[in-house]
Records
---
Amino acid sequence: MKKYLEKVKKRCYTTRVVIIFKEARSLSKIMWKPGTFVYPIPAAMISCGDMENSNIITVAWTGITCSTPAKLYISVRPERYSYNIIKNTKEFVLNLTTKELAYATDWCGVKSGKDVDKFKEMHLTKEKANFVKCPMIKESPVSIECKVEEIKDLGGHHMFLADVLAINADEKYIDENGAFDISKCNLIAYANGGYYTLGEKIGKFGYSVQKKKK
């Protein structure tokens, strides 16, 4: 009888350990190998070249690197048609994209400028920039003129670190106070292979510590 009770006790203990282990696993994250998973991020159309000979490449590997002075980066594979254009001219324009530009954004990312005129095929309008020879995309709500400062070989991609020379915003998105109303643009973001519209505004920078109005 004693051996039987010990056997039952051992079985119950083992069952309890298995249950606890399963519960722990259900609460933990699943580990994947290293990869690109910082989402969402901008889906930007990068225009390069000049007003006569230009191209557009869509990139998602982009972002701010410094606020003062203003700097940003784009990462491009060396085999891409636009890579040598940007490398040689040391300039580009980063054009933010919208829901209305989603199709063109994707198309310009999968087609090569050596085969097609992307401005012509996507019915996009070239607009003269202020400080660079690259055309801005008129249909974009915001076009950012950039001058390449440094090129870093990171492996599969090379990073173009650039100074922001000017920000050109469509006046139809400027409110009565002279501020840019980004909520009216229908900007899109890229996440894990998909394009997404932005959701509703749920707060603003510093709102967590802002004193409530009496």
---
Amino acid sequence: MNQVDQKVEVQRRPEWLRVQFPSGPNFHDLLQIMRTQTLHTVCEEARCPNIGECWGRRTATFLILGNICTRNCAYCAIAHGLPTEVDWMEPERVARAVQRMGLRHAVITSVNRDDLKDGGAMIFAETIRRIRAYVPGCTVEVLIPDFKGDPEALRIVLEARPEILNHNIETVRRVFKQVRHGGNYERSLELLQRVKAWGYPCLTKSGIMVGLGEEWEEILETMRDLRAVDCDILTIGQYLQPGKDYVPVSRFYTPEEFAALKIIGLRMGFRHVEAGPLVRSSYHADDHARLLDRSLGNSADS
């Protein structure tokens, strides 16, 4: 039986993967802001284990273009199906929320919208512009889908001048087709390569989940592939099975193994590597934004 098709009980997590129940004034304040502005966050929709920590430090990743994805990846807890119509007032509400939260760095992501001609690129661009209008000086990071490889959709987003453009490779080449339905490994690399080839000044970023059945050398191969397209920032975290109907965890990596991957990544030339069991793509994204204050030299950030 194919590993992806198996339905097994969710594995018991080791001690280093235990997180605190979200609480505290900042958490509840952000929750109220999201509800009053009728907004979604990937923190909630994807059941991120860091929601308590991140919201406690007043950072959140806004999920635009609704909360229904047109793809059905084997690891992702976001609902899939037929999305709703595009809400053109959403960028305005996101910008208001960023203003109310007092953010200096905003992270915007979306579900896949393969039903739209531009994949939702115009909404991304308008959200960036509205944040700039409401909160001058706020840096913006976008975590975008692959837009089915459409270069014009990518250019629409880049013309709005985000400071960081993130697109997650998610897993190694061999496992990719099994767990990322609708995606393409080479297409994801090509997207990141285009950003640099076209000369846009933003930093590029990508992320890998481990525990999906990959081998250690395959992780290193994927890291080398990302460096070959001059990716600046890398995040590496442990895949956690959201429920019985998702691909099971093949193994739990130790904190020491994540520390080793960070060292290897920095030696490869990544400007910053965030690696750890609970690391997610937007984990400590406000810290990553500090790279924007430095010269874009070749020195690695440790």
---
Amino acid sequence: MKHGDRRPIAVFDSGVGGISVLAELVELMPRESFLYFGDSLHAPYGIRTSAEVSALTEQHIEALVHRGAKAVVIACNTATGASIARLRQKYDGIPVIGIEPAVKPAVQAFPGGRILVLATPITLSTEKFRTLLRSYSEQAEIFPVPCPQLAAMIEEGELSGERLDGYLAEIFRSYRERPIDAVVLGCTHYPFVREAVAAASGGAVLFDGGAGTARETRRQLEKRGMLSDRTEAGTVELDNSDPQPMRMRLCEDLLRLGRKNCREKTEKQG
């Protein structure tokens, strides 16, 4: 199949968390260009109403499409649950790829196990998540665990320290009476604190949906003949609704950290 579409892939998140998905995309498709937009001015989405999330998401996706995006990745579980059906109807000419908590791979790895799904309250309340939960509820013990403050902490660059450890300890306190097999990181912010989550969980195996979303994005572009034909590395543009220098430095730091984490995962799997 002939390829040659060098337009950028847009990646949208409620803030800086979707950079974990952006890192997976860049590592998987280094010759593509990416336009990342985080709405940190209105973060965190996880404590807003579904109507507010839908309105914000659709507004920003429209702007990204107008900037020439050939595909849109909604790198936010909350925004995906609230908006993706309408966005796919509106933009049926371009791929619109969402993300969902990685419940399926966690259950496949630990059938009959105890699995916690950490996510924002609004993600856990969506029909999309409830449907996902019903699909696997008979195959494992699955516990939805709301984390209303965790994304906000990461949004401010709090990736380690006593306050983060204390918050996670409180989140896991009532689940530590028996071993936890797996923890699903159901918000794209959470992979940036994976070591702290692993420690608080007692060493459970962690799962997130970033790599799967990246693979699905490549599959959709390949199917439509929309992959880039450039031979050199593509560009990555980071943008934010709150573009103060501290915020943009955090975006750059998280992209470096995210790509490092991707390479380390690949090395372990290899």
---
Amino acid sequence: MSGAGSSLHVALTFDDLFWAPAFATMRSVCLTTRRRVDIVFHLYHWKLDPEHRQDLDNIATEFGAKVHHTALEANVAVTDVLDRLPGTRRFPPVVYARLLLDLLLPPEVERVLYLDSDLYVRAPIEQLLEIDLAGNSLAAAPEPGRHHLVGGDDMRTRKSPFDIADPYFNSGVLVIDRRAWGRADLPGYLETLSRSGEIARLYHDQDVLNLRFRGDWLALDPRWNVTKPHPALRALDPYIIHYTTGMKPWNTLAYVAFGSSYKHVMTASVLRRYRRYRRHRALLRLLGRA
């Protein structure tokens, strides 16, 4: 539990393609709390450009929050795990990095809020970090699309370790009890899944977490992780918006809730640079050089 004046630990994992969304997520966290100087961001990134790192460090200058960096590609314990895990163009192996938080976080961190990088936080995060987990290892919001995600087409074609009736959470917002996370030995569990070949049947790290913490998580109010945010969902006044589809708020045309506000949170200058960066990356892929 975190009292007034104690640190509020927030962790993000991302690669260089998501530097600007990570910046926007961090900035939204700071804008919506009065405890800015208590926030400690733990950033675990993959091959981050030095210029982009400076953008993230500017959060500390603007708000007084602390920003700690860890370059995942320089951590042998991390690369040894990630190199053996499956990835896709949409989800590179770095998405599994959140499972390694117990290896990465400083020992004094007892509770941490993990956030995906495509979020817009609209409520004070201390409300999450200070909740009673009621003996559970973590808290998360139920995944609204869990039935199709678990069942596949016609809800019967996917070979899954889950039953469609099972509770299932979205892993984009997690309140984590550090000791319980460590006891779960997620690196060892990943190794077991890799050796058995079962990991190839899973929906990346989200399935892994749901398997490992089955029956051991507290369900949050869904407003703490509103996915696929159609503009009509503004009426719910959500606490956290999660832009889970390909329609992202940083795109030129994006019919999503709070898209205009999000662009202001990212700031006009970062948004312009990020769009140029993405166009450059797309061109390199087209030329076969990325």
